[in-house]
Amino acid sequence: MESLIKPSEFIGLDSRTWFYGGAESPPHRGMVEAVKTYYTNRAEGPEGRQRNSDIEHACKRNLAQMLGGSAEQIALLSNTSEAISMIASSCGLKAGENVVVHDLEFPSGILPWLRLKANGVEVRVVPSREWTVTAEDLLSPVDEKTRMVVTSHVSYLSGARIDYRQVYNELKKTNALLLVDATQSLGAIPVNINDADFIVASSYKWLLAGHGAGILAVNPERTSRFEPAYVGWRSVEDMFSDTRFESFRFFPDARRFEGGYPSYPTLYAMKFTTDLLLSLGIERIEQHLLELGGTLIRELKRLGYETMTPGEPEQRAGNISFVCPEGEAFAESLSKQGTYLWGGDGRLRASIHLYNSSADIAKLLGQLSALASGQAS
């Protein structure tokens, strides 16, 4: 199977094999040119500022298209951690109330809620089973005092896809909101804001853009009265109103979560990369990475590795994780051979995206086989 896009379109992929997209993506040459355009436009003064605004709105429209929503539902912050922390500090949890998380979650999805324990908020951690968490697992500890359920769409640790849609359908019968971290899925597989209350994601992984943007998508169905704990000039309807020294009014849409200017170089890059992803089609990208991932899982098992990622296509995405006690050492050795993947936590993780091919999979398997043989000897 060929890659969906030529590796030569990315800087450095002519001499490297990239299974590192779950950490960060390789830079596309078009993204670099887009960032240069930002600096050219900045020299145009007022006209440049208008172009920045146009790029921002176009970027939001692209993200909204990916998420099945509207541009008014998209806020652009500095990073995903900021978005999650803002939601945690703004939801007004009281002593005796609780939040449900699970043990396959990335630290940014856990730490803001732990901070609330000092206020008497209970954090209920759902244990995973065989490296996955089901919707039933997440719903089990939910009760009348649960105010938020937090889950990734795809686990950074195991690569398991979690059925947040089923969780949301049940939570709509309660007062608990659902926060989904789509950092390991948006840009690789379909994600829908209509099946959650909040969705957050990062710009520099599967979306192929650079660092500097955190996407916050807001479903207004149950969050219309949810207000952020902080305020900035971009989050209010009229920052120069006659009563600006006395009161203010938040925007009614997702803009209320934006305090100030975003990272425009990042947005120029993300406008380019989201155009690219949408032109290829998210469903097509999903099919590509699922087929390559299925081959990798089968061959890893043949080599004797214990895979953490489910084999069923509907239960995984682009991250393929497998048990490897020497994960960090193996990743370092592979990096010296020009193959990048994540090693740590007693595992290796190969992240497959549109620039990967069957030849990449075969190369990785050969390198792993050689490493395992050297380790055994």
UniProtKB/TrEMBL annotation:
Residues 28-364 form the Aminotransferase class V domain. The keyword Transferase applies. InterPro entries: Aminotrans_V_dom, PyrdxlP-dep_Trfase, PyrdxlP-dep_Trfase_major, PyrdxlP-dep_Trfase_small. Coiled coil: none annotated. The keyword Transferase applies. It holds the Pfam family Aminotran_5. It comes from the Bacteria. GO terms for molecular function: transaminase activity. Keywords: Aminotransferase, Transferase. PANTHER family: BLR3095 PROTEIN, CYSTEINE DESULFURASE. This is Aminotransferase class V-fold PLP-dependent enzyme.
